[in-house]
Amino acid sequence: MPPLQKPLFPDSPVADDAAAAAVARAAVAPDLADAGFQLDGERRRRWWQRTLKALSPGFGGVLLLFLLWEAVVASGWRPEWVLPSPTKVLGRVWNELFYADTWIALRITMQRALLGYLIALAVGVALGLAMVRLKWLRGAFGGFTTGLQTMPSIVWFPFAILLFQLGEGAILFVVVLGAAPSIANGLLDAVDQIPPLLVKVGRSLGARGFSLYRRVVIPAALPGFVNGLKQGWAFSWRSLMAGELLVIIGDRPSVGTRLHFARELADAEGLMAWMVVVLAIGLLVHALGFGLAEQRMMSKRGLLGAQR
Amino acid sequence: MSGRLVVEDPQSVAIAVRGVSKVHGHGPAAVLALDRIDFEVQRGEFVCIVGASGCGKSSLLHLIAGLDQPTSGQIGVTGGATSLMFQDPALFPWLSVEENVAFPLELRGVAKAERKSKVAELLALVHLEAFARRQPHELSGGMRQRVALARALANASHVLLMDEPFAALDAMMRDKLHEDLERIVAATGLTVLFVTHNVREAVRLGDRVLLFSSRPGRLAAQWDVAIPHPRRIESREVSELAALVTDRLRSSSASSPHAPAPEAAVS
Ligand SMILES: Nc1ncnc2c1ncn2[C@@H]1O[C@H](COP(=O)(O)OP(=O)(O)OP(=O)(O)O)[C@@H](O)[C@H]1O
Ligand SMILES: [Mg+2]
Asked: For a tag site, which of A29, A292, B28, B191 has the least CB within 10 Å?
């Protein structure tokens, strides 16, 4: 690629020299026009490369952890029936995949997660937007929302069980309570951090009211909002697991009930196998659901996140 | 919009600024940025504002653009709308170069095909055709400023407000854009209010040059530039008038806060 034309003369009124400017005028345009196309090829990554890239940091760490775990087991610190080796546990995970029950449990858990998260999303966005628009609401509930966010969701369960009995309602209630404040706060912070200049530019270019929101405020707030969504997912997944361990519904097998029964039966291998499943689901949703979208967004805007 | 002046003579006047003062902040931290500014810009006129840093030039443009309200006084713009090119390029980082330029077109509901050709035309005007698909962060500061110019032009109001648009450009690109801007203005009959630190640039471009004194910002002097077109920034006439303006700029920024009343000198 030909190098871009460098300014030959410093930009000061004294340096405006007739001959130099004339030469320069002739030289500027063609070089700039050439420089555009050649970089494009290397920037486009294939989707599977991006997927791998999104997954790799999480799984590298997991691999390291497994090696460490294998070493601890090999040292004979605890008997194998209490602390099974990772190869055994992973083997068990693999075996579990062939039981219909496993898939039923996974399906029920993921349905709860999805439903809970969607409700939390709706509640969180509504609450966040309301607090963005209404100062008094923010004054009244802003601190309270942050308080809710820091409250361990398990604290809510006794109350939830009183309200909804031992049932789906109790679990859903706590999942929504866990995630919604993070989403609302994420939205609020994101809007607070929009550079006011961009909003001014939007207005000066004719965006008003709804179109200003749609075309400027929302895209400008997106990175912060995605952060809130991610945090909301982490909170809702934690709340869900706590809920499934506490609220065992007889005919509704789930990831939580599998953990619970493995403990009852002192089946350490099964227990750890399901813990691995919990970790894997959390990571997968995080990496595939948010990681990919976030990476795209960050690199498009030239933000640091792209350099991972 | 509240407090906007209705221009009495819309046939000839494009911008009317009447006794405008602007105080930024409150209480002890309050800054009188602009003090009773009075001037008019005729339709199709190219007026340059020069003045020391912090004398309220950007504040004035924001007031005229309706992005901020004056503390006292009134502002009127014929037709109401202005295009403002900010001191900072302030491109939308989530949009590509061409999408940034298309932004005001989309808001006006320009059809897709027309939008596309208009964007291409505007990008060609600022010599950035090859960068249409890039993101703003991939451009140099001067290139971003040129995209911002294209975007402001896409807004297509009759009044173009420009806040130090070419400060980040090298001398030759700036000369090129001076010519282009002159060509666009001649072709479209735009009214331009152009803020700059560079006195020569002001004389090179303007039909009239307004000098602002600082702290508080006041209209200290103005000159009609009677130099025939095409002008060159390095010509003798431009240099001579620029020297005159610069002398006045020095004395006004050194003098007491009570700058003399506006006067008119003719080159
Ligand atoms: N939002 C604000 N809040 C408080 N003070 C402000 C604000 N904006 C501007 N000022 C003050 O008003 C004065 C004028 O600012 P302004 O940006 O209009 O100057 P300027 O002439 O454009 O300067 P420059 O040439 O450096 O761009 C300055 O003293 C500045 O500190
Ligand atoms: Mg300024």
From this structure: B28
